[in-house]
Amino acid sequence: MATTPSISSSLLVLPISYILVLFSVLVSTSNSANINHETFLKCLSDLSIDDQSPIPIYLPNTSSYNSILNSSIVNLRFLSTKTPKPHLIITPLHESQVQVVVICSRKLKFQIRTLSGGHDYEGLSYTSNQKLPFVILDLINFQAIKVDVEEETAWVQSGATLGQLYYKIAEKSSIHGFPAGIETSVGFGGHFSGGGYGALMRKYGLAADNIVDAQIVNAKGEILDRRSMGEDLFWAIRGGGGASFGVVLSWKIKLVRVPPIVTVFTVSKTLEQGAIPLIHKWQYIAHKLPKDLMLISWLVKRNSTMQVLFLSMFLGKPEELLQIMQESFPELSLRREDCIEMSWVRSTLYFYGLPFNESLSILLDRTPTPRYSFKSKSDFVKNPIIKSALGELWRRASEVDNPIIFMVPYGGKMAEIAEYEIPFPHRDGNIYPMTYEVDWTTQGDETSMKNIEWTRRLYDYMTPYVSKQPRQAYLNYRDLDLGRNRIDGSASYEEAKIWGVKYFKNNFDRLVEVKSRVDPSNFFSNEQSIPVAFDE
Questions:
Q1: 103 alpha-carbon distance from chain centroid
Q2: Which regions of the chain are under pLDDT 50?
Q3: Which SS3 state, helix, strand or coil, does residue 416 take?
């Protein structure tokens, strides 16, 4: 990783010729927007010296602006002319350029939306419904990964993807991995700072549980590491949402040990094949299985037929897996021919539905395939859901074309870590989290509202069967239906607590305390950012 630069000695240069080219593009914009653009660009230029490449900056009404913005939008329901657009898109090349963008944005009252992979479920990394103008700070150029096998750590910049990390680890070692997510195109910035589920979490916990250092640009434009930011801020950005506290540039993570060969399987069952009794039984055993075994339950519709997929990874050989399954879940009737042996890194391709026998270079592809519109909501289940309710869940899922009901068992390491260890509080006492999602490809307000309302009705129906006081939710499956800050970016403690305790339970109060100390002016804000105390 690059050493931390000094703000006074390594600022960017925006040559006057570059500024003039940018200004010429602004002729077609409104006077007020023109003033905003010119003022912002002048601020960047004023803080420049002559030893760095200019910051790539993209302005509205240009083909580059639209292509870059559109390629960043993973959830296509935000690819609409009605969606608010940024005044500028900035793709810095160096850490010091991020500092300058923060300083100028704060000075000129621009909001910053930090983009690493674009997977925010409500689009908060690339759009805004608040009244202040905003810029996108796109970390696309921050993709460096340095793996140290001897130390069993890696430094990963926030613009890198999970797939890129998995590839880099595999280049150095066949017995190391990392407990992060299934979608290999997801960027590290949001995934890490919200928690980070993955197929290894029963063995090693969340991605955020395995972070040992970080670099962040704070509201003053300073670059801080764990030592200089202090333990409170370091605690807050590991599961509390980094965008509330600054721009996280990079993370130092602890690699974990995996066997050279793991075993995976997928068994699908329809309603006629006993899907409901199998899901019901799964609830009683999945969180009690050995830590080395992850057994996910996943309701989907394929070829217009609802089915449940039991998707699994075992850190061991098929023979041992078959014995465990026969003792714990004989009803599934797992066979040896269902089991596939492969390296851990190839299992990341398998879980994401990619060709796992082909070149690992597919992990380097940042483009999610396919892209579609979607809406998600999340819950946590503390007691097994009765069969009749599972049947109704199945029936309701069949009402839409592309439903996804995703259930990942807890237990293991997830039940051993205290709920206050990091801001992510959903630990012992939960047997599994549940995600309700619907995907669609037909664009238009009517289609969007139909699908969004389906998730809301299903969420309402599930109320008696999930966590209560609070009804918990997972930050990385962000849901603005739970509540949002005011249009000016402010929020009182009591207003934000409505959604805050759902994501963070009692950790919400500590997050507010940290926010109030490190960003008292509430510069880093969005529709669900942590508020400062007593901001009425």
A1: 26
A2: 1-32, 535-536
A3: coil
Tokens representing 423?
């801001």
Task: Output the pLDDT for position 534.
Answer: 65
CA 356/CA 343 separation, integer angstroms = 10
Cβ contacts of 323 within 8 Å, gap of 6 or more: none
Query: What pLDDT does 72 receive?
Result: 85
Q: What is the pLDDT of residue 489?
A: 67
**d(C-alpha 472, C-alpha 391), whole Å:** 23
Query: Cα 168 to chain center, whole Å?
Result: 20
- Answer whether the bond into residue 60 is a cis peptide, omega within 30°: no
Helix/strand/coil for 509: helix
**How high is the pLDDT of residue 380?**
98
User: Contact at 8 Å (CB) between 130 and 527?
Assistant: yes
Residue 257 tokens, joined: 């040990």
- Judged on CB neighbours under 10 Å (0-12, 13-18, 19+), 514 is buried
SS3 90: strand
Find the length of the chain. Answer: 536
pTM of the model: 0.92
d(CA 227, CA 225): 6
CB 413 within 8 A of CB 201: yes
Structure tokens at 461: 């129906």
Residues 6+ apart with CB under 8 A from 31: none
Structure tokens at 459: 């969420």
Can you say whether residue 482 is alpha, beta or left, with left for phi > 0 and alpha for psi between -120 and 50 degrees?
alpha
Query: Helix H segments across 53-128?
Result: 63-72, 95-108
Which pLDDT score is estimated for 5? 33
Whose CA is closest to 158, among 179, 130, 137?
A: 137
> Position 283: which residue type?
Q
User: Which residues make beta-bridge pairs with 352?
Assistant: none
DSSP 529: P
Q: Are strands 111-115 and 134-138 parallel, antiparallel or unpaired?
A: parallel
Q: What CA–CA distances, in Å, run from 529 to 206, 209, 243, 372, 474?
A: 21, 21, 7, 26, 14
List phi, psi (to 5°) of 170.
-65, -30
- Provide the pLDDT for residue 378: 98
Give start and end residues of each alpha helix (H) in 262-317: 275-285
**pLDDT score at 81:** 84
Q: Looking at residue 86, what DSSP letter applies?
A: -
Question: Tell me, what's the pLDDT at 17?
Answer: 34
The secondary structure of residue 26, as a DSSP letter, is: G
Interacting residues of 327 by C-beta distance below 8 A, sequence separation 6+: none
Three-state secondary structure call for residue 367: coil
Phi first, then psi, for residue 534 (nearest 5°) are: 65, 25
